[in-house]
Design goal:
There is one protein chain. This protein is of the alpha/beta class and 259 residues long. Helices cover 27% and strands 18% of the residues. Strands 5-6-7-8-10-9 form a six-stranded mixed sheet, with helices on one face. β9 and β10 form a beta hairpin. It is globular, with a radius of gyration of 21 Å. Pfam families: Metallophos.
């Protein structure tokens, strides 16, 4: 006599892995007044391929609000949230506040020490500043003008730290992305003349990335630098300046990163 078959429980269906948040990033787009119509296709394509767009400074070419007006019109084609920081070019004509105001809208977020959460990913950002890297980093010594230069980098690093810390306080355990214009590490400015490295970024900007367990950092500014590097603690850093992406063979100048 055959034993009665034992009832077996059907395995529970496996839960689908959560879909990653796809980030597109580019810096140094340097929009000019003559660029009307040039960027519409870019914003349409990036909206199809990514969930969030990071613009890592130097949004305008000469720092004029009129250039930002052109960019604002082009960005109407962008249907995904945009996170921005300003760059040195955007400050050149002292119209950076007008540039910011011109581009702000519901889905455009400017960061200058602030933080924003989009699709359960936290973003904190600052422009950053120069000062050099590692053992060649400029110290707080000498003339008042020299100390003021160093203090600017210190202040930018403190703002970045505050924004990242705020994310942890308000959203414990959230994945964090840092957005800069200036470089936080030397590796991503390699390729630029060594004499100008101190003006391309500062190691002080890397300290908050390591202390706050940032997942990745994106910056621009160094047009002939290197695409990818890491902080001392292994935080991934990407130099997404538009000329670097073009040289690397990207069909459209944006870098994609999944969180």
């Amino acid at each position: 006599m055959q034993p009665a078959p034992q009832a077996t429980e059907a395995p529970a269906p496996a839960e689908a892995a959560p879909k990653p948040v796809r980030i597109a990033a580019v810096g140094d787009i340097h929009v000019r007044e003559t660029d009307k119509g040039k960027w519409v296709d870019f914003f349409k394509v990036v909206s199809e391929q990514a969930d969030v767009l990071l613009l890592c400074g130097d949004l305008t070419d000469h720092g004029y609000a009129k250039e930002a007006e052109v960019l604002a019109e082009e960005m109407r084609a962008c249907t995904i949230p945009v996170v921005c920081v300003l760059g040195n070019h955007d400050h050149d004509k002292h119209e950076h506040e007008k540039i910011r105001d011109c581009l702000l809208r519901d889905n455009v977020h400017f960061l200058d020490g602030e933080a924003v959460v989009i699709k359960n990913v936290g973003f904190a950002g600052v422009k950053g500043f120069g000062g050099g890297f590692d053992k060649y980093m400029l110290s707080m010594f000498g003339e008042a003008s020299n100390k003021a230069f160093v203090q600017e980098a210190v202040d930018e690093a403190l703002k970045l730290e505050a924004g990242l810390a705020r994310l942890d306080t308000e959203h414990p355990g959230i994945k964090k992305i840092a957005v800069l214009h200036y470089a936080p590490i030397k590796a991503t400015v390699e390729g630029e003349p060594e004499a100008i490295h101190p003006f391309l970024g500062c190691s002080r900007l890397a300290e908050p990335l390591d202390r706050q367990n940032v997942l990745a950092c994106f910056h621009g500014h160094a047009h002939v630098g290197t695409l990818e590097g890491e902080t001392h603690n292994g935080v991934k850093v990407f130099n997404v300046a538009k000329p670097i992406l073009q040289k690397a063979g990207f069909a459209l100048p944006f870098f994609l990163f999944d969180v």
